[in-house]
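[agent] plan:
  1. take the single chain provided in the ticket
  2. run structure prediction with default settings
  3. attach structure tokens to the ticket
  4. add a short note for the reviewer (M.T.)
[agent] executing step 1
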Amino acid sequence: MIKNVPIIGRFKDGDVIVTEGIISNNAYIVLSGEVRVLKKIDDKQVIIGRLKKGDVFGEMGLISNTHRSASVIAVGEVNIGIIDKESFIIMLNDIPNDLRCIIDALVERLKVTTKKLANIGIQLEKAKKTINAFSLQTIEREE
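[agent] step 2 finished; step 3 output follows
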């Protein structure tokens, strides 16, 4: 975990901390509490993860200067720390270029994986609805 990260915000249950699609300027660290990570697929919000104390989010955009790939919502009371872009760039400049290329490749792969995971979540929900509908029809026929 990164040391000496100041608290930038206290959030209550349901508060939006990061919104999918906005330009990235910071990475965040969960100092206390828990957050839910949501990805929008076909006008639906799919939960793709939960993060707890010590977990970092927003790092992909900070590294690759892209839009937020997901939204992050507080679950209960949450305290968040920040790594601002200027401080991050100073730290990043100390990394050799060869290693930076590897980090960039990992970020791209993670974005693809996140999108695939969200699509799997949508397919799972569709399958559950189909199974439930089929089960109801079977029960009705048996009665």
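[agent] step 4 note for reviewer: Residues 15 and 74 are 5 Å apart (CA to CA).
[agent] ticket updated
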